[in-house]
Amino acid sequence: WRERIHTHTNDHQGQTTCWDHPKMTELYQALADLNNIKFSAYRTAMKLRRVQKALRLDLLTLVSVVDVFREQDLQHGEHVMDVVEMIHALTGLYERLEEERRAIVVNIPLCVDMCLNWLLNVYDSGRNGKMRVLSFKTGLVSLCNADVQEKYKYLFRQVSGPGGLTDQRHLTMLLYEAIQIPRQLGEVAAFGGSNVEPSVRSCFRMAPGKLAIEVSHFLEWMSLEPQSVVWLAVLQRVAVAESAKHQAKCYICKQCPIKGFRYRSLKQFNVDICQTCFLTGRTTKGKKLHYPIMEYYTPTTSGEKMRDFAKTLKNKFRSKQYFSKHPQRGYLPVQSVLEAENSET
């Protein structure tokens, strides 16, 4: 393990490179296929979905993960774990998975290797062989199989005091741990950069004048899908959409039925687009896509169809000036122009 966690230097280029399991190297190379996705939250979420499946974390429930944390006595977020403790906890986690999912073959040594490799890449890129319990928990809880609201509640509890309140310092710690996940994929700029202070201030606006917030304030803020953590909510939608089939034909590539996400123009009647065409920006000659767009990750109900028809009818009579004056973002921006680190943000 010493060989695996220590940093190796590439003398030819004078660069420092980290040891990766050969299967992890293959996984990272495969993620490059997703770089043609135009929208950073979706690009990041789809990459994380592949990581989640490769590490078999999509099979682990939050209840199981939390039970193993308790069994391993991982209660103090600021306690620093060494690699032996990490391996011990991960082995317990995958042994639990093997017990619970007897129909599924789990290669425990490979899963432990891969998951440890990913956690070290995210939280210990310098390969010191150390990681805070809060980092370890944030990584695993973010990618386990659970409703995103339950993930939010659990993560908030990890940084809250005895009264269930969290101050700015502790919320900063949590959001800093979370932002390391897209940072490791090279995606941090789109989520406001590594500086999480604007996000902390944005969250505390939910409780004006208060020095500490409750879980209800945090959940209300997270429901707005803040820029720095929007990828976590999108990851859940990506997972749900995988099994969705929509009885509609793609306006661009003619796929029918549409599988995965389905996008519908609320400016044009009967214009549906599949996820590949929409997310990569594919168009065909003379077929321009008009915003606003509605996203579906489950099949539509008759009520939703009627609602969309009414919205489309209303939008038909709205001018380009109306849409330029009423821009709609799919997330809550957390940085002002003055705070933006660079033009990428």
Describe the structure.
This protein is mainly alpha-helical and 345 residues long. It contains 15 helices and eleven strands. The strands form five sheets. Strands 10-9-11 form a three-stranded antiparallel sheet. The protein has a two-stranded antiparallel sheet with strand order 1-2. Strands 3-4 form a two-stranded antiparallel ribbon. Strand 1 and strand 2 (15-17) form a beta hairpin. Helix 7 (133-143) runs antiparallel to helix 8 and helix 9 crosses helix 10. The longest helix is centred in the first third of the chain and has 18 residues, at 83-100. The two termini are 38 Å apart. Residues 5-16 and 336-345 have low confidence and may be disordered.
Features:
single chain; 345 residues; mainly alpha; three-stranded antiparallel beta sheet; two-stranded antiparallel ribbon; 15 helices; 11 strands; disordered C terminus
The number of helical elements comes to 15
The first-to-last residue Cα distance is 38 Å
Shape: globular
What is the string of helix and strand elements? HEEHHHEHHEHHEHHEHHEEEEHEHH
Mean pLDDT: 83
Stretches where pLDDT is under 50 for at least 5 consecutive residues are: 5-16, 336-345
* DSSP helix fraction: 40-55%
Kindly provide the radius of gyration, computed on alpha-carbon positions and rounded to a whole number of angstroms. 22 Å
Write out the strand line-up for the largest beta sheet, numbering strands in chain order: 10-9-11
Quantity of strands, as a count? 11
